[in-house]
Amino acid sequence: MPTSFLGSALRGTFLSTLGLWWSVRYPLRYLRRNSDAQSQPSCGAQRLEVLEGAVKAFFALAGILVEQFVPTGPHLQLYSHKTHSWMELTHWHYSTMYLFFLLSGIVDIASHSPLKLPLGLDRLMLAVALLIEGLLFCFHDYSDAALDHHLYSLLAVAIFAGALCAFLEVFLRDHIILETFRTSSFLLQGSWLWQIGFVLSPPWGGPGWDQTDHSNFTFLTMCFCWHYAGALLVLAANSAASRCCNESCQLKFGDIDVELDCGMCIRRGNKSSDGALLPESPSEDK
Amino acid sequence: MPTSFLGSALRGTFLSTLGLWWSVRYPLRYLRRNSDAQSQPSCGAQRLEVLEGAVKAFFALAGILVEQFVPTGPHLQLYSHKTHSWMELTHWHYSTMYLFFLLSGIVDIASHSPLKLPLGLDRLMLAVALLIEGLLFCFHDYSDAALDHHLYSLLAVAIFAGALCAFLEVFLRDHIILETFRTSSFLLQGSWLWQIGFVLSPPWGGPGWDQTDHSNFTFLTMCFCWHYAGALLVLAANSAASRCCNESCQLKFGDIDVELDCGMCIRRGNKSSDGALLPESPSEDK
Amino acid sequence: MPTSFLGSALRGTFLSTLGLWWSVRYPLRYLRRNSDAQSQPSCGAQRLEVLEGAVKAFFALAGILVEQFVPTGPHLQLYSHKTHSWMELTHWHYSTMYLFFLLSGIVDIASHSPLKLPLGLDRLMLAVALLIEGLLFCFHDYSDAALDHHLYSLLAVAIFAGALCAFLEVFLRDHIILETFRTSSFLLQGSWLWQIGFVLSPPWGGPGWDQTDHSNFTFLTMCFCWHYAGALLVLAANSAASRCCNESCQLKFGDIDVELDCGMCIRRGNKSSDGALLPESPSEDK
Amino acid sequence: MPTSFLGSALRGTFLSTLGLWWSVRYPLRYLRRNSDAQSQPSCGAQRLEVLEGAVKAFFALAGILVEQFVPTGPHLQLYSHKTHSWMELTHWHYSTMYLFFLLSGIVDIASHSPLKLPLGLDRLMLAVALLIEGLLFCFHDYSDAALDHHLYSLLAVAIFAGALCAFLEVFLRDHIILETFRTSSFLLQGSWLWQIGFVLSPPWGGPGWDQTDHSNFTFLTMCFCWHYAGALLVLAANSAASRCCNESCQLKFGDIDVELDCGMCIRRGNKSSDGALLPESPSEDK
User: Fold this and answer.
1) CA 20 to 30 Å from C93, out of A143, B263, D148, D273?
2) What ipTM was estimated for this complex?
3) Where are the domains of chain B?
4) Which of D96, D124, D170 is the closest to A225 by Cβ?
């Protein structure tokens, strides 16, 4: 599987951004829930989740289109009858991966629509998307590229950790520890994809690292651990920043926040002005 | 293990049909339970489960008989003393597999009989049947057929996912997300068995795909993911159809439905005419 | 690891007997609990568990002594300074295995003593004993004996299934489905050890089966499944027999049963004559 | 990976000491909770946990510094531009390992600070530290040293068992069985690291054991089991000693104990003199 730096970096940026976003959102939600003692998710929180799903679906769709229609891409053609061979399987490989993130994004959106999908289906689809991603990297044919295999095996560890976490969240929804662990897994995947890009196809040209030097393998295993330590530090810094921000904002913008949160509610129910008759949210916890 | 197209397709059809049936049944049950707010399973639902078990057992038994008594089959003979070798182990392999689905079907039936089997035993037997199926494919000897091994390894992934799901259902019975995941696993197994048939022994004759071309392996891994995406779409379509059907039928056939559901109850308890004194079901949730 | 028929058969008999005993005890307890609606374990049930632990510990201790002091055994000597080699590692291997079953038996006894060990420690020790057994078989050196490796790998599957089950019982104590699955795992281990004996060192002399014939591997994988089907049938038959026995006995021996159960209680508390003031049992469920 | 006896022994001592400390602390806490029927953790218990975290973090930091600045260490230099090779990767390997134990120690301290970290984060970080440790040993390059690989694989079994246990404790906090199992895993890791030191680089000089003799592998697998049996005995002895000590101390030092426990509380709340108005602890169980 020839790795291009640009592709790897774009994928890494997508996953890191998702992780960074969660590293701000989940601590904030955790803090608010504790301070307000409201188990009811607000309308604002729901709109954010719909937006998150839409952004995820949009980038996944963009990813599929880019993979298919870049000049070296397969342009939706799977088999070449001229050369009697499969067309550009690497591009198809990533298109498949994005397809499942697209499905996950669509289910995220549908979960907050009036369709009343069963609670937890969004987490299951996220777990499935990660499982498929891991499966694709595990069953890939690395034939003679031992370093590629090593790097993508380490990536698969991060992916499966995230998948396990998302699967557990089907049963233990809104568990802050699981969400933290999942966030760290996405940050790790993101930064590790950047590392893979630098190792296998450096942006300044030239060949990748030596595939036969065993000390490279040992170093990269350690490097993976450092990336995770970095991910944890980013997570801690963002959580701390969220907390500071939350505390300083709560006094100033308390009223605005309520207004923003309940804008939709007002339009729907016209009863939230007294603050007591909030309409039932479609996906309340059982 | 020589794969015949017909055998693979029949097995695929059996598993797909089971998956399709569940993809209609579980959403319908989920919707009714929500709308009626009755946790009590109705008599009709129980009779459906008995019927499902009976059909499963019948097809498994038919499968055993067909595997044994087709012209090339072993006719229940295990060892040939003439050639000093085992007889037709592939047929025995599938007979063994069907045997555990037969046991699972029998336990399904017995669970709803007056025997009062402990709740969850039917799910355990389904998990066991899937584990045995996976074990048989994993420990099989693929010697020189690398593509066979690859295809059946992917099948084993789907099988073990289903087995894990069924095992979790022992503890979390009637969990719609787990049921959805199990259904998708069966649809995937079914369609993948069709794919295996087309790849290893095409129905239009000729040899199977090239066992040494590595791009075939990469393509088939992706293809497995597409089958899963297809299974998810079928699942979504059937759920949507069930919902539409449920909503349109509820008004028209509300009374008929109650009558159908409680036919057995009437015969048993003679008290359901007033609709309030439903007899206790033998396997109510604890 | 040279396998002797007698050793394998004795081990198999031990594990099968344990499985058979459980296949009678657990259904009986399940039925009584349902009919009496008493969650309190009776004194008789506790004495049975102590007895079970004692028998397990006794046989494990006997096993260690036999392994060490048979004529070909190491007689507690680990290293021979004459030949500069380890002494009879196979005997030491099985002694180690029995040691953990001995510990498990001791913890079983101690759990029901006035020591008030935390509930679930007996299940953890059983899980540990099985994990160690599986570990010893997995990390063993089968060097050139591929058939030995195959047979013991299948055994390890049964062992780890039992270990997982016992570990889950730490958290879900007295769960009839888990107990049933554990029982079936022990029956399978027992009968498979007999099979291993017949395959690798037939009692009628002569060499074991051909280690190079691949059809033997396929046949033995299937054979393992048939053993499991057999184990399930034995389990079903014993459960059915327990039920019949329970129903016919309940009327006749109701009073005797109460007396037997509460003999110890009477001696302890002198209050069970009125049947209402049963003393608190030391290991009641939390 | 060249193993030095001193390094291995120091690591083993660190992990064993942690295990020994837990083997006294957890039984004592279990006994007190049962006798007092107070689910509220006392201030003394919290200060002990902070101290434990601080000691863990201190030793991890010391470990990093020692690994870096011993004469043969890399002195924080990662790549030698002179020789165009990585510097002393083994030292970096252990530094990485200690880094995560340092993070775990810091989170332990922060969990009991007024920061109100979500409950269970300390257990997650311990699980992560163990996972990283296991990952580093699993993905290490043992190239031609089969015995090293075998010894560290067995160590990894102990590490992953501990990691699984710590991860389960995120959800089942203060579960005495899980704590016992985790403690035994640490004792095993500690003593096994001593064993590794003796086998691979004996302190009396000379080469390690023969890497090609297969009976060494079999013996060391058994030896690992004996270490675990030893760990269990130490655990049992310490629990018994804790119990004796607890019972004899409860009468004599009951008042002193209360004073020690509530010293901090008095300073904080000035209300514990009457024994009824204990201040709320920041990390009470949900």
Assistant:
1) D148
2) 0.85
3) 5-270
4) D96
